[in-house]
Amino acid sequence: MSRYVDADELLKEADLYIERLQRMYKRRLRKGEVGVFLDLKAIAEECATVDVVPVRHGHWMEEVDPEEDCWNEEVVTCSCCNEQIRVHETDNTYFLPTRRTLKYCPNCGAKMDAEREE
Q: Which residues are bridge partners to 13 per DSSP?
């Protein structure tokens, strides 16, 4: 799985580290002494960029008591976007997904792995 790093933050941290080293040695450092940080900055500047969206984590909230529904269906609501989705309680249906098979909200894309709030 890929790991994405904020290149601007990396550049800022490299500059701060070089400044800390210079303060520690109480002099301006030569390129050879900070070369690895300068190389790191050059690599970060040249790397390709990608659009990364933070993962939202949510959970399904029950809207209808499943015991009262004669079709064994329930409505669940996404805790992130409040979109309501009709699901089937068991895997015996051909048309409706079950809460177990809906691992992401089809509306906002939130991953349904967050703990439920009591």
A: none
The torsion of the CA quartet 66, 68, 73, 76, rounded to 10 degrees, works out to -50
**Pairwise CA distance, residues 107 & 73, whole Å:** 19
State phi, psi for 116 to the nearest 5 degrees.
-80, 140
Q: Give the pair of three-digit tokens for residue 99.
A: 């809460």
| Tokens 């805790």 belong to residue | 79
In the chain, where are the structural domains located?
7-46, 53-118
- The mean per-residue pLDDT over the stretch 70-94 comes to 74
Q: What is the pLDDT of residues 33-71, one digit of tens each?
A: 888 888 888 888 888 777 787 889 998 887 655 555 555
Q: What local confidence, expressed as pLDDT, does residue 89 receive?
A: 64
| Residues 35 and 18: beta-carbon distance below 8 Å | no
